[in-house]
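Technical annex, item 7. During the second reporting period the consortium partners agreed on a shared format for inverse folding records so that results from different sites could be compared directly. Each record opens with the tokenized structure and is followed by the designed sequence. A conforming record, contributed by the partner at site C, is shown below for reference.
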């Protein structure tokens, strides 16, 4: 039979089947026939009771009134047996139930075994079985659900804005995790309260208990501090698939006053999603922002020492340019740091993101014509120009139509004038703290000897020279130094400026260590700074305490 449908194509409904082709009705019937025994088995496992004597499944012909099968009914016909009078039989029943409860079946994992028993189980036995399941890795192991992780994140943001605790977790999980981590058992702690490890980290581990891929059996946590134990436990629980090291910051530090709980929870969700093999792209889309698949691919190649927000920015620059030098340039300058995992909150932030994108593309275009030093200077110049235009309500700075040669010539003059204007009064002076010194290192295999000089800057003009030479804004710290809030020290190696250090004016604690264009210090430089702290700064701090004690007494 042929017919014409909607005046379109003529369809032959009696077309002969090709080789390997089946009718859809036959396929549906075949699938239904195969699934029917499975459904009957699941209903039997979930809904039918068991005999209290032999623990066999009760059938329709059994006596359901007293929860015993016909075999046990005939066996005990001569003796009057009551399940509530025989304590020994009752304890044996408990042991049988616990044995069944410890078996890694869907019936036990769903927790329905406890609620389907006609004889109530003591909570001590249930907790013991639950701990055995958790230690063996049977409890949990649920497949990662991106929407559920996004819902936890949204819930934490809503609770943070309302001033409540960030997450509500199972108290039994908190007891179990404190026992594993070797922490004292506490009650009534909020997420804001913290101890040596941080109650927030323990709650964060308990929040994702359903996604644990293995138990604590065989886990060694000895010889590590509290934060390292939390990190090891998180990687043991959730890293079934490789997780990049830059996400470890979600578990390394306890929550402090002023920290964004929502951001910490977001990176913990990333950690669990990556470790469980979930789709980060689906999860971020449910959270309210979009991250491209190319950006996610470069996240595993990012440096391990970067913060999560900076790492995502580095991966975004790599996805746009495919050039590692450009991504490294954007990471060095703190003024260009943006968080691509959150939507812009204001019009000015949205304008700066457009400027950031234009900057990345411009440097990718002229990447072969620039050195690292020239790129740092141009980035500093572009940031000053954009910030000045935003403050003066002028037209935004643009890289369009600019060439590297003319930009470098203009940047040198502009930066010197801009950095000089940061200071207020150049003849401002303050008294030194006595932390300056000279450290001479031992000769190396090459026979060279490095001389490291720590010079304390006590004049406004010295701050101006330091800022112009190092290309950062230390000249604007003159008022802080005069008021005793900060202390600035210039570190030079063989009469060449290397680092600028900021210390707290009262405690002499090290606050900032920046190189030229605000770069991070190198490992060899930090070793010298640590030697200086342990020898000179510690001695001066001890003298200040002694003088303060003599004055008060």
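Designed sequence (site C submission):
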């Amino acid at each position: 039979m042929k017919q014409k449908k909607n005046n379109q194509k003529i369809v032959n409904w009696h077309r002969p089947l090709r080789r390997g082709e089946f009718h859809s009705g036959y396929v549906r019937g075949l699938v239904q026939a195969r699934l029917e025994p499975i459904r009957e088995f699941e209903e039997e496992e979930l809904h039918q009771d068991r005999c209290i004597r032999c623990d066999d499944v009760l059938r329709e012909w059994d006596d359901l009134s007293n929860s015993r099968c016909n075999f046990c009914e005939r066996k005990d016909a001569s003796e009057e047996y009551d399940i509530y009078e025989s304590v020994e039989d009752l304890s044996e029943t408990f042991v049988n139930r616990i044995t069944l409860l410890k078996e890694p079946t869907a019936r036990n994992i769903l927790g329905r075994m406890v609620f389907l028993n006609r004889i109530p189980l003591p909570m001590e036995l249930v907790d013991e079985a639950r701990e055995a399941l958790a230690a063996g890795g049977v409890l949990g192991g649920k497949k990662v659900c991106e929407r559920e992780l996004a819902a936890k994140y949204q819930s934490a943001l809503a609770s943070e804005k309302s001033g409540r605790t960030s997450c509500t977790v199972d108290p039994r999980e908190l007891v179990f995790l404190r026992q594993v981590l070797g922490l004292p058992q506490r009650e009534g702690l909020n997420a804001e309260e913290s101890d040596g490890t941080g109650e927030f980290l323990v709650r964060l581990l308990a929040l994702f208990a359903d996604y644990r891929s293995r138990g604590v059996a065989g886990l060694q946590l000895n010889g590590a501090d509290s934060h390292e134990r939390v990190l090891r436990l998180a990687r043991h629980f959730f890293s079934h698939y490789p997780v990049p090291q830059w996400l470890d910051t979600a578990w390394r530090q306890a929550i402090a006053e002023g920290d964004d709980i929502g951001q910490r929870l977001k990176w913990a969700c990333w950690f669990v999603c990556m470790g469980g093999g979930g789709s980060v792209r689906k999860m971020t889309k449910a959270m309210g922002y979009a991250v491209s698949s190319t950006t996610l691919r470069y996240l595993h190649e990012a440096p391990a020492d970067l913060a999560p927000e900076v790492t995502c920015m580095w991966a975004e620059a790599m996805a746009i340019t495919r050039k590692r030098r450009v991504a490294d340039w954007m990471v060095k300058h703190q003024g260009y740091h943006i968080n691509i995992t959150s939507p812009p909150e204001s019009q000015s932030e949205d304008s700066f993101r457009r400027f950031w994108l234009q900057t990345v593309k411009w440097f990718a275009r002229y990447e072969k014509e620039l050195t690292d030093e020239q790129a740092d200077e141009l980035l500093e110049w572009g940031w000053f120009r954009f910030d000045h235009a935003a403050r003066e309500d002028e037209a935004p700075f643009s890289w369009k139509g600019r060439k590297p040669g003319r930009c470098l010539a203009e940047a040198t003059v502009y930066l010197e004038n801009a950095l000089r204007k940061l200071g207020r009064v150049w003849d401002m002076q303050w008294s030194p703290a006595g932390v300056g010194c000279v450290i001479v290192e031992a000769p190396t295999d090459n026979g060279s000897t490095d001389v490291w000089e720590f010079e304390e800057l006590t004049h406004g003009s010295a701050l101006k020279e330091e800022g112009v030479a190092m290309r950062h804004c230390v000249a604007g710290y003159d008022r802080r130094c005069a008021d005793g809030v900060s202390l600035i020290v210039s570190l030079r190696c063989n009469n060449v400026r290397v680092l600028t250090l900021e210390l707290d004016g009262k405690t002499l604690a090290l606050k900032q260590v920046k190189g030229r264009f605000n770069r991070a210090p190198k490992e060899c430089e930090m070793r010298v700074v640590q030697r200086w702290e342990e020898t000179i700064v510690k001695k001066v701090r001890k003298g200040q305490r002694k003088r303060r004690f003599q004055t008060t007494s």
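Strands lie at 2-4, 10-12, 437-440, 451-456, 486-493, 496-504, 510-514. Residues 1-81 form one domain. All partners now use this format for quarterly exchanges.
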